[in-house]
Amino acid sequence: MIQLSVILLLAVFLFGFPGLIMIIFLQWLTRRSYAKDNEQKHGISKTGASRLGGFAIFIFCIGLLVTGTYLEVASLPVGLDMPLMVWLGVLFCAALGFVEDVKNNFLSPKIRLYATFVIFAFVIGCCPFLIPIDSKIPILDPLLALPVIGWMLTITFCVGFINATNMADGANGLMPGIITISFGVFFLETEQVIYGVLMTSSALFTIFNVISGRVFLGDMGAYGLGASLVLCGLYLFSERIFSAMFLAVLFAYPCIELVASLLRRRWQRRPLFSPDDEHLHNRIYQYCKQWFSSKTITNSVTGILIVSFSSGFALLGYMSQLWEVTDNRWGWIFIGQCSLYIFVFMITKVYHPRREFTAY
What we know:
Layout: H1 2-15, H2 17-30, H3 39-42, H4 53-71, H5 84-102, H6 109-126, H7 140-144, H8 147-167, H9 174-190, H10 193-212, H11 218-238, H12 244-250, H13 252-267, H14 280-288, H15 295-309, H16 311-319, H17 330-347
Helix pairs in contact: 1-2, 1-10, 2-4, 2-10, 4-10, 4-11, 5-6, 5-11, 6-8, 8-11, 8-13, 9-10, 9-11, 9-15, 9-16, 10-15, 12-16, 12-17, 14-15
């Protein structure tokens, strides 16, 4: 009861009446007997947590947009001016995840992987301007300039990104925190309502997730929000609003973890998108277990630490006006983040006594 009271106070203090509604809805979802997560999958609590966090965020976003439009409380542009195919891609990814949340293992991992490839193939094919052909990365730019290769590389990156989002869902506040900060920066830079709505919904979910650990983004949240984040990022890059280097710093953890996981599995001769528990957040979680007796606190500390040194760097630099968001000098910070990732990965190790924190 004290835990819920703290969550409600924070939500109402930061977001007012909408915050109260969102927390009540999330609390209601945690008491449902369906769409429960397997405790051995994420290792949060002894009772399965709800997988419907993404569904809650989706419903709340729709509610905020409809209410704001009806009451005419928003004078800023809504921001739904991206091509319809982009938003359809986000919806199809979210729907794919929702099916998995409601009926676990209804679709095999291989089918979901192929389905996401098909979705992004259509989106990028219909919107070729999303291919980041002027990223200022010497090795990639010549390849991305080749239509077919650029199309395939962009599809692979998008699919890998949402899989990285999904595999990090087990750490409280990790991906929700990155998503909140990212959409917050998008909103501050563009003043488009859709990003403010996504930021608000994700922030409220993050508060509930970090403090209680009783609800995850689920596959709908990981696929839907992951797709919206990567596609919005590519769109804003194509509009010259952000540089590729700034977005790399903002999305540092899922991007670095994606590359590291692919290289590790390639070295171990395993399928590139197969699940394992050798991610950096698994290692930090196992290390933090010796300091905290509560699995929820340990998990939340893991997520907060990684967010702080990932998107937190981008937010700090943005708020302090370190460089313009179109500046490529952000690449130096990204190099520092990569170096920090390697250092922490090397000094930590994974224990496998109970395989408590396996990411899928």
